[in-house]
Write a structure and sequence with these properties.
By secondary structure, the protein is of the alpha+beta class. It contains twelve helices and 14 strands. The longest helix has 20 residues, at about 5-25.
Length: about 400
């Protein structure tokens, strides 16, 4: 007899109660190995310890005097240690779905924190923390938040944000058939949920993601001061200093749009063509531009800057229409959402059609760019702040 979502929720409820009993004994358990490693690193490296200490001590209080946390390194590490075995719960806060950001948000924008996150050893350790968290979120233990309670991702609040009818799932199975939190987060669309507009018209470019337009820019420069307030795009930084492609896109245009934690998080080809090259470029985590100072929006005010420095997938597609040349699709990780996953078949020589899946983000909200060579785009059909579903038209080419 198939299990109903109600039966599934009862199982989850029992598991959650058991989980709370276990959490009560947390102090007796050993801290996570990656947290111990982080502590040992800063113990051995006094300069890194100085940066970690001062990024906390330089956090400014809120205007009303309310203290901001963490207040000490011990508090920071204790909170990181706890979150590594807790899946993100649904809530109504601005940082919904990003618990690591909830811990780090004020350190990221503190005067010393802006520099601390660019220290190679510190950022490498945060990379290891993220890898450990991803391992937990890939495991069945992370599914307990997939329930119908107010803090569950099938509950009334989350259901107003996510239309599960658009996605492949089975309500008759426990956790709707999802194997882990990340399996739910990177859920696939059901057939027909995002129809591709004008699939055979090579003069129209389609949206690669469900996303909100952040910026459209023209006359891209080979090298720009991407760290200033206007966040100009610097192709040399974005494209990993690959001269062939930097020269190809200099003078061209870029369409950038961001995803929030409720959006569909897979990427699709915006054109018909052939993969020239595709890879993931490792980058930094939790860094943002100094010009924005303290930013309570989870890196939202630094999205242009992030395309130059954060972990990103770089996918070059040679268009079937020779007048388009090459298009670059660049998904970019934000805060703890730094896992860019290319599908196995997306490699040089692979043919792709509009709407074909290229890869996906594991966990959280992110951003992406579509870059065009100079003189290609006749007009963009979308504007800043507009939400665009996968497969809809974003541009018309010459």
């Amino acid at each position: 007899m198939p299990r109903t979502r109600r039966q599934s929720w009862l199982d989850v409820s029992r598991q959650t109660k058991t989980r709370k009993v276990r959490l009560g004994a947390k102090k007796k358990q050993r801290e996570h190995a990656v947290i111990r490693e982080f502590k040992e690193m800063i113990h051995r490296r006094p300069i890194e310890r100085q940066y970690m200490e001062t990024m906390i001590s330089s956090i400014t209080p809120a205007r009303d005097g309310t203290p901001r946390h963490p207040k000490t390194l011990k508090e920071l590490f204790d909170k990181l240690d706890r979150v590594l075995t807790h899946a993100p719960e649904f809530n109504d806060t601005a940082l919904v779905g990003t618990p690591l950001s909830g811990i780090l948000i004020w350190t990221m924008g503190s005067p010393q924190g802006l520099a601390a996150y660019r220290r190679i050893r510190i950022n490498a350790m945060f990379g290891k923390v993220l890898a450990a968290y991803k391992k937990f979120l890939d495991s069945p233990k992370s599914r307990y938040v997939l329930n119908t309670s107010p803090s569950g991702w099938f509950g009334p609040g989350a259901s107003k944000k996510i239309n599960m009818a658009d996605y492949q799932h089975d309500p008759s199975k426990p956790y709707d058939g999802f194997k882990s939190w990340n399996d739910f987060f990177a859920r696939k669309l059901r057939p027909g949920a995002r129809p591709v507009v004008a699939p055979d018209d090579n003069k129209l470019v389609n949206s690669a993601c469900d996303s909100t337009v952040y910026r459209i820019s023209f006359n891209l420069k080979e090298k720009s001061r991407f760290w200033i307030k206007s966040e100009p795009y610097s192709l040399n930084a974005m494209l990993n200093a690959e001269e062939k492609y930097v020269k190809k896109f200099t003078g061209g245009s870029v369409y950038q749009a961001f995803l929030n934690p409720f959006n569909y998080h897979r990427w699709h080809s915006p054109i018909n063509g052939t993969i020239e090259k595709a890879y993931v470029q490792p980058g930094m985590f939790f860094t943002q531009t100094d010009a924005m100072k303290e930013d309570p929006t989870d890196q939202d005010l630094s999205e242009g800057y992030l395309t130059n420095v954060e972990t990103r997938a770089i996918i070059y597609i040679k268009a079937d229409d020779p007048s388009i040349g090459t298009v670059c699709v660049m998904p970019v990780g934000m805060v703890e959402i730094s896992s860019c996953n290319l599908n196995k078949h997306i490699k040089a020589g692979a043919k792709v059609r509009k709407g074909d899946e290229l890869g996906y983000f594991a966990y959280g909200g992110s951003t992406h760019c579509v870059l065009f060579q100079p003189g290609v785009v006749k007009r963009f059909t979308r504007s800043k702040g507009e939400f665009v579903e996968t497969g809809q038209i974003i541009a018309e080419v010459n």
